[in-house]
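A reminder before we start the practical. When you read a complex entry, don't treat the lines as separate problems. The point of joint prediction is that each chain is placed relative to the others, so the output describes one connected object in space. Small molecules and nucleic acid strands, if listed, are placed in the same frame. In the example below there are two entries. Take a minute to note the order of the lines before looking further.
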Amino acid sequence: VVDPDLITRIARKEESAFAELFDATRERIWSYLTHMAGRDQAEDLMQEVFVKVWRFAGTMKNPDDATAWMFSIARNTAKSHFRKRSSRPMASLNRERENGDGALVDVITATGDGPAETAESSETAGRVRAALEELPIEQREVIVMKEFQGLKFDEIARILDCPLGTVKSRMRYGTIKLAALLQEVR
Amino acid sequence: MSCDNIRDDLLPLFYGELSDNRSGEVENHLAGCETCREELESMKNALELVRKLPKESAPAAAKGRAISAIRREAGGRRGLFLGFASAAGIIIAVVTVFVLSLMGPGPLKPITAMGATSIVQRGYSVTVFNQNLAMIKDRRDFVNMRSGVTTVELTGIPARILPDSISFKDLDDPEGTSVLEQNYEFDLAGATAILDKYKPSDPENLESAKKITIVRKDGSEITGVLFYHAGFDTWSRWQNLPGLKQQGGGDYGVMEQQLWGGQQSGRWYPRTVEPKVVGLRMEDGSIEQIRGQEIKAVRLGEMPENLRTRPTLVWQLQASKSGLHQSEVSYLTEGMSWRCDYRLTFDNSNKLSMGGWVTVNNYSGVTFPDAKVKLIAGDVHMVPRGVPVDMLVERAPFEGNAAPAMARKPAFKEKSFAEYHLYTLQRKTTLSDNEVKQIELINKDGIKWEKKYEYCSQVRSGRVQVFATFKNFENNNLGMPLPKGRIRFYGIDHTGEPEFAGEDNIDHTPKDEEVKVRMGYSFDIVIERKIMKESRPRSNRPGEQEIEIKIRNHNDTDVTVDVFEPWHWGGHNGKVTESTHEFTKEASRMLLFKIKIKADSETILRYNVQYTR
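Here is the predicted structure of the whole assembly.
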């Protein structure tokens, strides 16, 4: 959980608070980004996330939601990364895409075997990762937040700004799909 | 209770996130429902696998990177992030990674050279090429030069200098001063180099020698006089090079040129050498030999003298006049490059704004404080090192400090230079070692542009590509040569925030040319191409092809798609016999149909081609 005091101090541009926050959250942000955007991108995205935290710390409204606030920054950064993938089809520029999760899902498909994946020492891990990547992004996201960030369902709902029921059902559908994809692994 | 009311809470139960009441309900249901039990079981198994994924930690350097990023935010930012800058001429990003204090230049203060001649660094002029190369003009004053032969040492030299490219010009007495001999010494403080300095000059007289302490990996220490050590010898690579003369005593890193302007094509790759074996003479006269693998650390009393901690040029200068000599030393160094990044921001209007930044990388090994910076755009032909750049780069004399740039003055002044374009930064700047510096090149608004849609069945994707085109003309608020680089597009969304919308590279683009950049594929224009009829031409009858292309426009505006169609078939002559739309011949074997499609509608293009042998 992110200490809201740290964010307040960061808003006052205290570098020590920034360093503290970085240490406290680095692994969680890192694992979120690696699972959402891939290892290759995560490093740049991570920096982007923390720079945004630094820049926008003053705009955080509710200190109780510091964790959710930080994760929504990470989430938006990862999302904007998906738009940047130039080899993907481009969504219409004239249309509002802010709520276009559905459209985005079509865009993101399994990324196949990159060098990082082929170097995977364990075949199982590679397959689990590939299966995760096959999930629609909003389902994958919930699973990543739940399993790797250890967030509670209501926290996830706050981050995603959607009803609790939606989060639970995304989690369920995602996990069922994952189970189907991983059937032969077991 | 039905399964539907329960299912979404199976996992929350598993994670223990249900209220007691609800937990009871779900558990009761589970007890009586095999389907739900199975579902939960299979989900648990899947999550188990996810949980077993090996965890990877964030890279150690991430923190340092983030902190330098926020520091430069604090530096001089105005609405900037990853290229969103607006302030003119502001240095927007300075990433200092590690500046070894050892390698720092310390150039602006007098450096005492042998023979009381001192050298004062007066300024640098740096011309950076696109291709990992820079030409440095280094102004030095030799104070108190004596007539006759003097040995001087020049420091503040990049580690990645190309020693064969160095040239020297005495501005005060060009005729009377010359460099007789030059040594480029890179006897850096590697382990072997340091040990060398600890070797007793007279092996018989060990009293004078200094003691060293070796710490073994198991923690034990051993102290004695260094008797011998052996490592790899970097000299071997250089022994047979023509024009090179080995100099006695200069181990591991002295490259010598006998005279000026040598033409060796060899490169200098200094590397520090770890000792493989060390022999110590103990106080009782016995010799202890320690293998390199066993050594954890070597403890020395003090830093030996005459050990160069930074690359140094050692010159034998012959001067006919004594006193002050102003001079210019120029050389090429690797490890510097620049590139251009552009940002195009567009909204629903037909105008876009363009920002361009120059990113200069300096990994040459030295900091150039307050340097005049020039950038050469264009791909320079590289010929054997040492010749071309002198001819290529204009020989601008060093001026005094230029007046600081005015606030809105363009940061770079562009001027055509031979086959290249030379951009001169209007003010001086410091290029630190291990630094990525960004400087604004252009910032223009109100550039008219068009979106173009193209489809060509030969392009594999089978989708409609979107291009942005605009004229690089002065009457379109542009009209300046654009160095090659990456263009990123940002569309302003309904909240007024720029959103990334694709990127492409542009080549060096002269002014008065059209720029066409690929933005990506259209999402809302769908194409289906079918060959309806096909018969090969025979000797007695012509062949035929009927092609149907359906284009659907799901945009809410009308669009025009340029459809490129190939019409050759193994060298047969083709003739379009029928077509629903007009076309032009784009090339000898390509037809171009300009198809207008209304918003939310479909247009069908159908044409027949007859082929005769």
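Discuss with your neighbour: Chain B touches chain A through 60 residues (CB under 8 Å). What might explain this?
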